[in-house]
Amino acid sequence: MNKNVEFAINQQINKEEFSSRLYLAMAIWCESNGYPGAANFLYKHAEEERIHMLKLVHYVADRGGQAELLPIDQPEQKYESLLDVFDKILNHEIFITESINSLYEVTMNEREYTTANFLQWYITEQVEEESLFSTILDKIKLVGADKAGMFHIDKELEGMAAAMVVAGI
Ligand code: FEO
Prior knowledge:
Bound molecules: MU-OXO-diiron
Largest sheet: none
CATH architecture: Up-down Bundle
Distance between the termini: 30 Å
Low-confidence stretches: none
Shape: elongated
Mean pLDDT: 96
Number of helices: 5
């Protein structure tokens, strides 16, 4: 496997691993701050990020390389509100999209078209993730300080977490 591509994939593995840890930290905060539905949703999403990481790890192995696990930063563990949590999630996903795009650029520069093709899954996934989190964030902004509205959003997130279980995540 091309060394520049392998290096860039290892950086992405680290970012997906961090994403999983970040959503775990957010889930823990939600659980202790009265948002059980958001907590379950984020626990599930932390697992999903782990799957994103593993797909890259297996890809490197399939191409004759060996994934390298780099140190992971400690995520923020205190948040101001549910709005703060989802605002930070959306910003993080935008950062991940940029990172996937840069990785794709490396594969193009190195003429590693097989890896570029493999990365298409991540490109599509990022469109879905940004859209999902931006929809949730809009709803949270809409209810503002209304407690009943916030309760409803938490229930909705609980439903989404349950659907992720059904989907086998
Ligand atoms: Fe692995 Fe949420 O991007």
